[in-house]
DNA sequence: CAGCGGATTTACTACGTGGTAATCAGCGCT
DNA sequence: AGCGCTGATTACCACGTAGTAAATCCGCTG
């Protein structure tokens, strides 16, 4: 059996409670006593029992992170950043994969993840119509992404509209006029605030601002957002015979597929078709040609989300503070696929900073 | 305060212990009683308190997975598979990132991850010289990868030697004779069983078996194994003026960089240089050209490792069963970078099955 | 109808920790 | 010396669960 406070207490000739006080850095412990206890702790190799601590205090020191799939690069990088941010605060992270299963997502929202103090949740299938679910959530929760917007819950997200707009404006600045967009989501009629709709909105705004006529046929619906889907969409676009000189894909994963499909069809990127993605996943600067993208500020998102969740946990279950919304700053990263350099050194790229980070309360 | 067994017991007019028996599917509970209790559980929305359960039973139902970095595609996909395999068994997974920090790795091995019943550990910096550490491990542990081989610990790994050999034999079968290898590890003089050494060994075996002279200058040392490093190594290889008509990179990440570097230098893949990687990460079939690779059997590795760990947890701390070693079956996936097709549909590829899975006891 | 054995249920308790409140030691002051 | 005060330490208990062993119930046998 493991070493307990009791064992330490006996060796240090104090009560278990004094050991507890030392471990928890309570004031009013005599320096000599503290030293003696610490000595005993070291000698016995005592480690606090987290289950017991959890039972007594109601905290586990573990937070949950729920994503669709870790094998999607975007979520892997998000998880990486979240785990790093949590570690800074002494929190561990249980990662759950929901695999785009709506039932699981609803179940998760009603019960939370066992063993955790709170949840960071990046849903895929929930929409505005599920907003009511949030009213009954009785554990600390921070949503990543914004499609259940306006509920009583904290949200950390990105500047989907303005970032998408900036990406398309970049394409326009290259002189492109027939700009296709791949990734509109079939569900999004009912999900006005889904990321796909917001990015599409940014796309339309950019066109409108530049006085470019909007051709609905250039908005390509596709789901889910795997590279294969991007390739399929690009092929259908090519086969459609529609003229186009640029593609904005709503994610980098889609762009990877699109790049392949364009290559197979003999369209040269960026000469014939400029391409820009969204997410700035790690491989995007390694594709051939390297992929321009929008960096949504992943580290900032993770840091902020973990911070908000830690605060909610700190405040306790009862407190009903107002929901907050944070949008991370973004960058447009120009690489070869839209005429940037970036061949010489893999890291080089043009960079256009977008809207500053902003946090709203209310 | 949350609903407890006590509350359920009162409502169902039974003792708390009976509720516990129902929850834990004990035999010898009268069907009527069971139904009444389940009714009460549903009515109150009772959920077991995992901390209390953990305290009482000594089990948390959580396992740890420690990897260098989740943002490396290989580890993200591994984590994906591990989480899925754990979920099948009702286990949650806390993911820890050690970032290639040797101190952290040693600390982890001495204390385990808090809040967990056991650990799956894929170290980066530990070597054969750290084997002694394993003697003092007092928690269930399964190592992923084999460089601390021969200790008292279960290992789940891949057929590094024969898989690498198969990859190189494939290149040879294309008629290539000047085959470079990128990824030899500088530390591996002292780590005879590091994956890099084992894969290099497979490379040499393949050359020897084919009667091809071994040119040490074609073995390129590089560390760490990020794509940038692969690009650097490939550039140095090109600049060296050495003649070569194929490259075997010890990981796909290195291959991604190598593909870029070759493209920049005007070498056409696979006509001038055939390339094959190792790991079969998801993007490898999306690169241009798509990347041939060795699929190390990730799902099998994850499944087996979680199974072994679950068994060790089941057996309890005291039992000192013999260490086991499992090597997953592998496949050589032939894609465009070594002359395969795979352009039409993204998924298509040649496939050559390697050694069957094998498990050794002792 | 007492008695038996297995099925079912229960009382009691400990798991390791930390909050509460009580106790105790030491010190300055009257 | 006696008092009150602060700092330091402690006894006691509860958190929610599940193991142990004892108690109770039920159907049947002799």
TrEMBL record, chains A, B:
UniProt keyword Transcription regulation, yes or no: yes
Which CDD domains does the record match to this protein?
HTH_LacI, PBP1_LacI_sugar_binding-like
Q: Please state every residue range assigned to the domain named HTH lacI-type.
A: 3-57
Q: Using the UniProt annotation, give all residue ranges assigned to the region (Disordered).
A: 340-362
What Pfam families is this protein classified in? LacI, Peripla_BP_3
User: Molecular function (GO) terms listed?
Assistant: DNA-binding transcription factor activity; transcription cis-regulatory region binding
Question: Any idea which UniProt keywords this protein has?
Answer: DNA-binding, Transcription, Transcription regulation
Q: Which residues form the signal peptide?
A: none
Against SMART domains, the record matches this protein to: HTH_LACI
What is the protein named? LacI family transcriptional regulator
**Origin species:** Nocardioides turkmenicus
């Amino acid at each position: 059996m493991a070493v307990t406070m009791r064992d330490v207490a006996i060796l240090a000739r104090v009560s278990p409670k004094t050991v507890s006080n030392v471990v928890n850095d309570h004031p009013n412990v005599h320096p000599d006593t503290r030293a003696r206890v610490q000595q005993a702790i070291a000698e016995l190799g005592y480690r606090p029992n987290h289950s017991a601590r959890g039972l007594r205090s109601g905290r586990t020191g573990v937070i949950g992170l729920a994503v669709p799939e870790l094998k999607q690069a975007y979520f892997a990088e998000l998880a990486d950043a979240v785990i790093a941010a949590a570690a800074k605060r002494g929190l561990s992270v249980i990662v759950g994969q929901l695999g785009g299963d709506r039932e699981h997502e609803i179940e998760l929202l009603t019960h939370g993840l066992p063993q955790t103090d709170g949840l960071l949740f990046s849903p895929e299938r929930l929409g505005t119509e599920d907003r009511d679910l949030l009213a009954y959530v009785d554990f600390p929760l921070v949503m990543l992404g914004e499609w259940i917007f306006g509920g009583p819950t904290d949200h950390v997200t990105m500047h989907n509209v303005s970032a998408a707009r900036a990406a398309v404006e970049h394409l326009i600045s290259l002189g492109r006029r027939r700009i296709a967009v791949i990734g509109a989501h079939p569900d999004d009629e009912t999900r006005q605030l889904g990321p796909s709709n917001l990015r599409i909105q940014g796309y339309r705004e950019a066109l409108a601002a530049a006085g470019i006529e909007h051709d609905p046929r250039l908005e390509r619906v596709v789901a889910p957002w795997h590279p294969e889907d991007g390739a399929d969409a690009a092929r259908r676009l090519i086969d459609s015979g529609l003229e186009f000189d640029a593609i904005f894909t709503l994610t980098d994963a889609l762009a990877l597929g699109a790049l392949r499909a364009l290559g197979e069809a003999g369209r040269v990127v960026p000469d014939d078709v400029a391409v820009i993605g969204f997410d700035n996943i790690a491989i995007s600067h390694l594709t051939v040609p390297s992929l321009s993208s929008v960096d949504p500020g992943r580290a900032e998102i993770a840091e902020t989300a973990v911070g908000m969740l830690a605060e909610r946990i700190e405040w306790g279950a009862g407190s009903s503070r107002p929901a907050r919304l944070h949008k991370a700053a973004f960058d447009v990263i120009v690489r070869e696929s839209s005429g940037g350099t970036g061949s010489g050194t893999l890291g080089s790229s043009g960079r256009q900073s977008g809207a500053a980070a902003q946090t709203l309360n209310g």
